[in-house]
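Appendix B. Raw example, untouched.
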Amino acid sequence: MSRISKARIAAAATVAVLTAATPLMLASTAEAAPGGTAPACITRDVNAATHSVKLGNYCGKVMSVTVVLKDGSTTPCFTMSNNFSFTVRYGSKTYARTAVC
């Protein structure tokens, strides 16, 4: 199995729960580099016990975000429609911030 295929499998396993009927898309790998911290209209509900964060987009437009972990690693870049929320699980690592990508 190629290195990219393993990464895509891991990325698919990252998204745990979709909580709305609006589409969520993974951005291409080239777009996955984190930028600045996501604006306040991207809500974050971090649950350290389950190693997950629920993200919501209430910015009035489509937004692309990634979760940055304390060790510097990131989740894939997710493109979220407005009024959409979902939960990202990040294994045994520690949440640092949510960034635009």
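End of appendix B.
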